[in-house]
C-alpha cells in the first residue's frame, strides 16, 4: 500500500462488482453479467489512473458489505474504508469525516467508472483546493464526477438530488449556504447509458492505453452490437 504520509488523498467511490448492483442504468442495453464484466474493467483502469499520480494516498470508500471483496481486488494498492450509512450521500460524507480526522488536508473523491479522465484533471483538483474550500468536477448531465474538500462539512451532502440531473445545482446551493468557496475542474461525462459506451469506445479506439482493459471490453462490445444489427450474433 502507498505511504499515508501525503496530505493528499484520492478516494475512489466504489461497489463490489455484483450482478444487478452496479451500473444499473446499463441493464436495458446489456445483460447483468456483461454489465458486471464492464464494471470490473472500469474499476481496474480507474485504479491504474489513480496510481499514475505521485505523492497521493489512494483509498476506496464503499458499503460495509463490500469491504472484503474490494480489499481482495485492490490488494496493496489502496486502503479500503467502509462508509457509514447507505447511499452515495452517506459515502461522500464518510469520505471527508474519515480522512479529515486523520489529518489529511486535501481530499478528493471521484467515480469508480472514470478511466477516461486525464490524470491532469485529478491533479488539478488538488491544486484548486489550495485556493478554495471545495472543488467540483461537473458532468454534462447536471451531476458531478468529482468532489473534494479541505475539511469535513457534514451538511454538504444533505438532502435530495444525489444521482439526478440537478445534483450539481443542489451541491452548489448547499456550499453557498455554508459559505464555502468552490472551484471547478474540467467538465466530463459519466458512463451511465449506451450512448456513453459509444462515446467512450470511440475515444479509446484512438487512445486505448488510457484505459486498456476497458478498451478491450468495448472493442468486443462494438463487434457484438454490429453482429446483432446485421442478424449474425447475440448481445
Describe this structure in words.
The chain has a seven-stranded mixed sheet, with helices on both faces. 40% of the residues lie in helices and 15% in strands. Helix 1 (32-51) links the parallel strand 1 and strand 2. Helix 6 (194-206) crosses helix 7 (212-229). With 235 residues, the chain is α/β, with parallel strands linked by helices. It has a single domain, classed as Spore Coat Polysaccharide Biosynthesis Protein SpsA, Chain A.
Write the layout of secondary structure elements.
Layout: E1 8-13, H1 32-51, E2 57-62, H2 67-74, E3 79-82, H3 88-101, E4 106-111, H4 119-128, E5 134-138, E6 144-149, H5 167-177, E7 182-184, H6 194-206, H7 212-229
Helix pairs in contact: 1-7, 6-7
CATH architecture: Alpha-Beta Complex
- CATH topology, by name, is Spore Coat Polysaccharide Biosynthesis Protein SpsA, Chain A
The CATH class turns out to be Alpha Beta
User: Runs with pLDDT <50, length 5+?
Assistant: none
Tags for this model:
235 residues, alpha/beta, Spore Coat Polysaccharide Biosynthesis Protein SpsA, Chain A, seven-stranded mixed beta sheet, 7 helices, 7 strands, globular
Summarize the structure.
Helix content is 40%, strand content 15%.
Amino acid at each position: 500500500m502507498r505511504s499515508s504520509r501525503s496530505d493528499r488523498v484520492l478516494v475512489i467511490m466504489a461497489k463490489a462488482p455484483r450482478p444487478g448492483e452496479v451500473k444499473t442504468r446499463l441493464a436495458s442495453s446489456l445483460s447483468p453479467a456483461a454489465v458486471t464484466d464492464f464494471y470490473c474493467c472500469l474499476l481496474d483502469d480507474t485504479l491504474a489512473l489513480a496510481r499514475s499520480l505521485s505523492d497521493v494516498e489512494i483509498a476506496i470508500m464503499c458499503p460495509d458489505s463490500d469491504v472484503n471483496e474490494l480489499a481482495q481486488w485492490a490488494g496493496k494498492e489502496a486502503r479500503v474504508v467502509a462508509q457509514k450509512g447507505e447511499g452515495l450521500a452517506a459515502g461522500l460524507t464518510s469520505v471527508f469525516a474519515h480522512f479529515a480526522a486523520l489529518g489529511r488536508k486535501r481530499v478528493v473523491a471521484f467515480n469508480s467508472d472514470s478511466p477516461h479522465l486525464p490524470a491532469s484533471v485529478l491533479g488539478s483538483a488538488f491544486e484548486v483546493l489550495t485556493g478554495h474550500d471545495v472543488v467540483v468536477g461537473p458532468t454534462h448531465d447536471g451531476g458531478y464526477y468529482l468532489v473534494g474538500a479541505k475539511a469535513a462539512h457534514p451538511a454538504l451532502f444533505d438532502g435530495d438530488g444525489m444521482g439526478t440531473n440537478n445534483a450539481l445545482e443542489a451541491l452548489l446551493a448547499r456550499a453557498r449556504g455554508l459559505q464555502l468557496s468552490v472551484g471547478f475542474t474540467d467538465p466530463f461525462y459519466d458512463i451511465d447509458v449506451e450512448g456513453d459506451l459509444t462515446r467512450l469506445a470511440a475515444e479509446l479506439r484512438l487512445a486505448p492505453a488510457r484505459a486498456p482493459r476497458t478498451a478491450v471490453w468495448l472493442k468486443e462490445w462494438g463487434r457484438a452490437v454490429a453482429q446483432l444489427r446485421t442478424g449474425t450474433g447475440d448481445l
